[in-house]
Amino acid sequence: MRALWRLARLAPHVLHGLWIVSRHFGRMTPARRHERIRWWSVKTLRILGIELKVSGQASPAGHLLVANHVSWLDIAGVHAVLPQARFVSKADVKHWPLIGTLVDGAGTLFIERASKRDALRVVHQTAEALKNGDCVAVFPEGTTGAGPGLLPFHANLLQAAVTTNVPVLPVVLRWYEPGERFSPSARFIGDMTLAQSLWRIASAQGLGIEVQVLDAVATEGRDRRALAEALRALIAARLG
User: What band does 235 get if pLDDT is binned at 50, 70 and 90?
Assistant: First the structure.
């Protein structure tokens, strides 16, 4: 019953978000859009019974945000804290029912991960956004992991920050629930479908996400691969 009640409340909230994106985002100032993104994300977590813990803070823009990746809800967790972040996401997310329209409306940059040519296009697009003072967010693991252990960090998109000499902002995401430092309910791995993941999350009791915003890391003179390894080590150390 808990899951059904939460999903029943989530449906109109998602439709409300779609209405805001399609009817109002085009006329809003960036600050107003960020305000609505934060509101929608915080309420999404609250409806699903997810506790939000936050530590650290960041400047409002002008950096490349790098985070570990556990769940499709990571974006809502980050947007609840840093609504100005424009995510780089795999292209098939754009075609997810309802969710695709919402993330597209939030300014997401989509990438065909299997295409080197498309990756280069997104690097240039990201660099341009950073030069314009935007905050661009990436998951350098490229896919979701189990939580406690990190997958290798891909360095390609970090080149955008190195080229533009923009700092990188490491963000640590840790999903937890009672008796589990790293939540199994939040994991979105293997052959799990979006519907299955949503049901597990909605059914969970005491689920939470901790968002740790670390100090910015300078990129001047850095090699992107060495930078990727340093960021991975930094986030891994905070995950413990």
Answer: very high
